[in-house]
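ok so I'm stuck.
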Amino acid sequence: MSAKVSCPVRIGGKAGDNFKGLPIDIIVAARGRALAISVKWKPLRKCRVYPDTPHVDCPLRKAVSFTRREGYTMSQPKRFTACSLFSGGGLLDFSFKDHFDIIWANELNPSAAMCYQANVGDHVVVGDINSLDIESIPEADVFLGGPPCTDFSTDGANKGEAGEAGRLIWRYFDVIRIKKPKAILFENVSGLKKRHKKTLDKLVLAFEEIGYRVTLEELDAADFGCPSYRSRVFLVGIRSDLGYSFTFPIPTGQRSSVRNAIGDLPLPDEVSMNDRVLGTVPNHLVTWTSPSPDRIREILSRPNPNQWYTMRRLDWDRPSHTLVAHIAKDGREFLHPSLDRRITVREMLRLMGMPDSFVIPKDIKMTQQYRLVGNGVAHPVGKALAEALHSQLQGNVKNPEIMIEQLQFDFAC
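replied:
not stuck anymore, here's the structure
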């Protein structure tokens, strides 16, 4: 069949190519139709028709006419870049990668970095951030960071900024002071706002003094549809010359439950703690330890006040209580709703709202798997923040306009 059509066309080819004096990657529009054709300039050219028509590949034998009909202008969306500090296993960056090009990351723990590399990208640098030359970090539009929380956590050392981990918030600040990105996102436990408010106030003031408009909010993941409670402090700074402050996303108000998150999972594969296997369902493995079923039944049948306090079974119809990094050691605080075992790593990921496409490599020890998940940011919150930050940065940027032409093709297929 031969036909003469006017349709949207995206010209393909290597960078710098041109055809009839028009550069490659000109986007062509025609009469608001959803039809599109992608043309590869090769001896045998192909066109692809989508999305409102059946998927078709056909040879484009000749372009008889390539004429300008009329011109339009459109905005070309900007793809913002991001760097990540204290990246952990990559849970926050995984939530951001659909909206930002994450070009560099740093993580001290090799196991967490291995998980990051498998799920986010191989741009992660393993090493102590105190030993890194800040000037070697690439420029980016956004810098993400969640410095270690142990010195601010109510369950941790609680040494504040004087602690070895606590003082790393100022290393994060030093990076921002030197790199001056358009936006920053800082995350930590709610204890930073409650027990260490003076430190938080000092950090906010420091960011303001180097030219950022700072917005602070405490968000609970359960308010964003996550099947677990997880209250965290988020600080977002927008560089003052951009002329606006960040507006936090509004919680969905929809609650999820343990049942919604893990109720469809099959029984986990039984392994020993030192086995290096992925499992039939990735990361869905049970060791029957910490605690053992016998120990669970013993405590439940003869409760001791001191032991009973830490023996907690998840409720099928409520969100989980806050997941922590030491479940591998203190699993009795996170017992399956109906089985006498601690939750698996896959169940923990599900309760953090992570999709099953996030898979922790089998070569990572199980204790480290629990740890990197427990130190992460819940996916629904990370995703909401990524969407809000991208939208607000995009709305503020003046996008370059590109000319789009309505072209006419003669082709046979």
